[in-house]
Amino acid sequence: MRGASFVTQVMSLARRSTVRTLRQPAVIVSALLFPMMFFSINSSGLNAATKIPGFPDVPYLDFAFAFPLVQAALFGAITAGSDLARDIETGFFDRLSLTPMRPAALLTGMLAGVVALGLIQGVVFLAFGLILGVNISSGFLGMLLLVLLTVLVALAFGGLGAILAIRTGSVEAVESAFPLFFVLIFMSSINLPRPLIEQDWFRFVATVNPISYLVEGIRSLVITGWDAQALLLCFGVGVSIMVLSIGGAAASMRTRVA
Amino acid sequence: MGAFFAVARAVAGRQTYKYFTNPAFLAPALFPLFFFIAFAGGLTRVGDIPGFDYAAGYIAFQYVWALLQAVTMGGAFTGFSIASDFENGFARRLMLAAPNRYGIILGYTIASIVRAAMTGLLVTVLALVTGMPITGGFDFFGLVALALLANIAATLFGAGIAMMLRTGQAGPVIRTPIFLVLFLAPVFVPLSLLTGWIETVARLNPFTIILESSRGFLAGEPSNVAVAFAISFVLVVVMALWAAFGMRRAEEAGG
């Protein structure tokens, strides 16, 4: 590794991160199975919600399709964060810091693993949705954008997972953040459009919750087609979270290595 | 028989003490609370769908599911504790010392009831604070009885798995089936409004009758009471046999 360029360092750690993820069948199964399971159950169980006046004129299956994509990103973040925390717990991180490997390479390599998992999840969920009969209004280009957005959201959450891992150095602490991420998803407009949320306090929480804008952007590609406002908000929020979280993770990394 | 109850008392005492002295003792209640807030808060308009005829309203409708989730997950968490006791060697020492090992199962079950009572109380208080009516009056105790039986059944299920696997990896094996049974029921709307595969599965899921009967108790319109209690008792008996089988496997493996 001595004398290796930054790109080589990143490639080595990205390969390690990806292979490690793919070698954990339990992780892959939970990252794929649970979001699909929740999607199937919620979309069937809440199908009657389409009878609420004002609900978009689409099957609930289409409306709910953003759910597995966003939930997948959450699983990716927890997985990546846990792996990084495990590296710290087992001393791998400390041994690595004694080598010429740059700390930024470790973070970038880990995030490359998140991108790989996000890509797999995006493609699998898209295929699963199409098999179930989800109609993507924005067509083939929209499908590509859906996968891209899944990766963007995975990176944004992945940065948060990395901050937790670096700051706490504990797998348990990273995994205990799972309910918090889950709360963020459910306290958004994931189940109903915001104007149809009856409770004022819940509508307020959903409006200030950035997850709502990620969900609404992804959903617009499925049920509306090309909605510039929803997509701009989605990209804006996604990129902002990604920049802040990865920036925060890099700063935490510098502090830890110093 | 004296040894059986003595062991049960000792195990229940230890588990209850451990539960209340753990700073995160209310953590198992987080998910039911959160699901209750998310569903009862975010989906109130679902109660306006034509054909949604639950008299007590949507908050009460979701409360019953959250309560049953809280108590069954309380049982699952007891299973995690048993698995952890095996992993750290405590259960092996316990089995060597206990004159009647089946008392261990009863002890864990009693502790699980205490745990479920706490989490159930928390969910109930939150529901009342958010305006849930108890229109059924004393029928509410029917709901409590069904919740108690659901907790016992889930605890015995978790205990059986934990004693068979004797490792922390038993967690997902305990949690996933319970989660599935809970979600493959009429969670968001009554059974009559479900369509497609979820309706078929929900009709076959025995938990559906327990859930609908529990909702009936809360609304003061009890329905399928005998069937719901019969299913609950059968589940408890079957799961007790399952837990006893798990204990035998643990004994054969030497704890």
Task: List the topology elements.
The complex is a heterodimer of chains A (258) and B (255).
Chain A: H1 6-22, H2 25-45, H3 60-63, H4 66-89, H5 92-97, H6 103-132, H7 139-168, H8 171-175, H9 178-186, H10 200-208, H11 210-223, H12 228-257
Helix pairs in contact in A: 1-6, 2-4, 2-6, 4-6, 4-7, 4-9, 4-11, 6-7, 7-11, 7-12, 11-12
Chain B: H1 2-21, H2 30-42, H3 58-87, H4 90-97, H5 102-129, H6 140-165, H7 170-183, H8 197-204, H9 206-219, H10 225-252
Structural summary, described in words:
The complex is a heterodimer of chains A (258) and B (255). Chain A has one domain (6-257). In chain A, 77% of the residues lie in helices and 0% in strands. By secondary structure, chain A is mainly α. Chain A has twelve helices and no strands. The model of chain A has no long low-confidence stretch (mean pLDDT 86). By secondary structure, chain B is an all-alpha fold. Chain B has one domain (2-252). Helix content of chain B is 74%, strand content 0%. Chain B contains ten helices and no strands. Chain B has helices at 2-21, 30-42, 58-87, 90-97, 102-129, 140-165, 170-183, 197-204, 206-219, 225-252. The longest helix of chain B has 30 residues, at 58-87. The radius of gyration of chain B is 19 Å and the shape is elongated. The chains are: A mainly alpha (258), B mainly alpha (255). The A-B interface holds A 26, 30, 37-38, 41-42, 44-49, 51-52, 179, 182-183, 186-187, 191-192, 196-199, 201-202, 206 and B 30-31, 34-35, 37-38, 41-46, 48-52, 172, 180, 183-184, 186-189, 193-198.
Short overview:
The complex is a heterodimer of chains A (258) and B (255). Chain A has 258 residues and is mostly helical. Chain A contains twelve helices and no strands.
